[in-house]
Amino acid sequence: MPAELPRTVKVLHQVWVVAGQPCGKYLAAVMGTTLANMEAHIGSEAFGRARSRYSPLVHQQLLAMSAATIDRLLAPFKLSMYPDGKSTTRARRNQYTEALPIMFRIPDIDWQPGLVAIDTVAHCGNSAKGQYAVTPFSGASEAARMPAPVRSQGKQVTCDFLWRFLMEMGVGWKNETMSAGRDYESYAAKMRQHVRAGTDMEVDVRFVDMMTKRRSRVLDIGCGIGNAVNGLRARGHEAYGIDPTPQVLEVAGEFYDPSWFRRMTAGDIVPGTLALNGLPQAYDAVLMSGNVPAFLSANELRKIFGQVAGLLDDGGVFVVGTTTAIQGGPVDLDNAAARSSLTLAHRFSDWHLSPFYTESPWSVSVFSATGSREFAEVPGGMFALRG
Predict the structure, then answer these.
(1) 3-class SS at 374?
(2) Are residues 40 and 108 in the same domain?
(3) Distance, CA of 84 to chain centre
(4) What pLDDT digit, counting tens, does each position of 74-121 carry?
């Protein structure tokens, strides 16, 4: 194996993303043109984190690669970006959906008037995370039976079948839906009011600003209405925010620069997806506050820790703020960190550096990447006296 091959593979990942993620056959055909275009735009981070690995030798190795070699070397990277899909029949339980009986098959239906929820299989790509819609239907006491089950062995029920089924059963469509997630419209309205009232919502901003060097690059996962991104930008940092909820991102766009934000999930923070969304692929700090871990499964949390570890520069920090005694609390965070290269550096009970105890209702955890951070500021607040 040539000495430069590991560097070449990293550059190959970036070339593949820039070229539009083609197969090896097509990438080999356009390799020379793609490299020339990337070199022409090297100042705009066309090579991303792979820029330091690019050299004349790497250039020669890329041009000499066969289609089969390209596909073989890209296979692990493709798998990390597009893992196997998942299917599930129910979203995370909550007080609203638990109040409605699920109609698994016809004999289970309560024939008295009331509400019943149609539960269909949700095919959610490579993540079961997300907002599920549960539509309540009002049942009639006089209804005809149908032999076919509503849900059978993981087969997805089509809307057409459901509509005909409901019509034949005399079930009326209730003109409202219930979401298994948060009422995002109300949340967005509340946060919009906080911004207009001048409420201090930058305590996490001051925390991150204290821990990072000037002009750091920061990614806020679950940025909400963008107040942390705005606060970090005001302090000279290059901050970006991602959030999967359009309602809160709409508020962020009202008050701040929309170019700072992207509609993405926490699981989207892989170099290829970030590049496709026009975001940097290396950061000095990653922030995840506001109970985001509470809405992630253990597997999703472990995956995100691994992804964050790959994004952080040497000595970079991953700052997580969440409720202690629920899913995604310190125990779950530490278990996820143990599967990654990140290590717990600090833990506090609030954003003001108060000591953390097991009974503390809130936790602020700081996980550090390998390596050491470089602070170029002089004197950096330190005036050491000579002995």
Answers:
(1) coil
(2) no
(3) 17
(4) 888 887 766 655 555 554 555 544 554 444 444 444 444 444 444 444
Helix axes 184-197 and 246-255, enclosed angle (nearest 10): 20
Query: Per DSSP, which regions of the chain are E strands?
Result: 87-88, 102-103, 114-118, 122-123, 133-134, 136-139, 172-173, 178-179, 217-221, 238-243, 261-263, 283-288, 312-323, 343-348, 362-368
Residues 56 and 126 placed together within one structural domain of the fold: no
For residues 176 and 193, membership in a common domain is answered with no
Question: How far, in Å, are 71, 99, 278, 303 from residue 267 at the CA level?
Answer: 24, 30, 16, 8
**269, 221 Cβ separation under 8 angstroms:** yes
Residues recorded for the chain: 387
- Domain residues for 346? 185-368
Tell whether the model's pLDDT for residue 152 goes beyond 60: no
Comparison of pLDDT for 81 and 325, the residue scoring more: 325
Total domains in the fold of the chain: 3
Among 240, 235, 243, which Cα is nearest to 212's? Answer: 235
Contacts of 333 (CB under 8 A, 6+ apart): 293, 301, 320, 322, 363, 365, 367
User: Based on the domain organization, do 10 and 121 belong to the same domain?
Assistant: no
Among 118, 110, 109, which residue's Cα sits nearest to residue 158?
A: 118
Overall average pLDDT of the 250-256 stretch: 88
Contact 211, 317 (CB under 8 A): yes
**Quick check: is 376 in a domain?**
no
Place of tokens 């699981």: 267
Token output for 87: 């299917």
Query: Is the domain of 211 the same as that of 298?
Result: yes
Instruction: Give, for 76, the enclosing helix (H) or strand (E).
Output: helix 67-81
- 126, 155, 181 - which closes a domain: 181
